[in-house]
């Protein structure tokens, strides 16, 4: 089941690359970019992670970034160490969280059909509700698109907060 804007994003608790448990609820009060990716240290996943790492405006907006894959914490530690990502990479080895986000499905890579995590991104608002979801993400330009949506969402909320 895919999430739609306005849905309360299910809370989760997963270990990161340092073995610390990260909970989505720990980030309440700020925007959170949760992105699901297939595998550490593969070409597309590396480009995506580095794009989020390099998205200075995203950080300036106060957004947190959490990457989730089925890789374990040790794999995440190597991936983070190699590229200096600087944000939590969460180990969802049984794919329970990935499935709860609707980011699991059939994939066709080079003619090989399989089931697994689908590259997806979710912007969780400060109140824990979904602002925007992308399923079957194309990496190029995606971090910029995520930044733009957060900036526009903040701008729409600003007049309501000033009133």
TrEMBL record:
Query: Which Gene3D superfamilies does the record cross-reference, listed alphabetically?
Result: Glutaredoxin
Q: Which GO MF terms does the UniProt record name?
A: thioredoxin peroxidase activity
Reactions catalysed, as given in the entry: a hydroperoxide + [thioredoxin]-dithiol = an alcohol + [thioredoxin]-disulfide + H2O
Which key words are in the record?
A: Antioxidant, Disulfide bond, Oxidoreductase, Peroxidase, Redox-active center
Name of the protein in question: thioredoxin-dependent peroxiredoxin
Q: Which InterPro entries does this UniProt record tie to the protein?
A: AhpC/TSA, Peroxiredoxin_AhpC-typ, Peroxiredoxin_BCP/PrxQ, Thioredoxin-like_sf, Thioredoxin_domain
* Active site: residue positions: 45
């Amino acid at each position: 089941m895919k999430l739609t804007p306005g849905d309360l994003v299910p809370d989760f608790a997963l270990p990161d690359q340092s073995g610390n448990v990260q909970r989505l609820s720990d980030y309440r009060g700020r925007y959170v970019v949760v992105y699901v990716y297939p595998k550490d240290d593969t070409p597309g996943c590396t480009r995506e992670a580095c794009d989020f790492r390099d998205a200075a405006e995203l950080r300036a907006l106060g957004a947190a970034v959490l990457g989730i894959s089925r890789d374990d914490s040790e794999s995440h530690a190597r991936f983070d160490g190699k590229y200096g990502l600087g944000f939590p990479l969460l180990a969802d080895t049984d794919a329970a969280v990935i499935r709860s986000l609707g980011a699991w499905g059939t994939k066709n890579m080079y003619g090989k059909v399989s089931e697994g995590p689908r590259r997806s991104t979710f912007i969780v608002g400060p109140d824990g509700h979904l602002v925007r979801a992308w399923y079957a993400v194309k990496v190029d330009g995606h971090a910029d698109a995520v930044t733009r949506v957060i900036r526009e969402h903040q701008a729409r909320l600003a007049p309501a907060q000033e009133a």
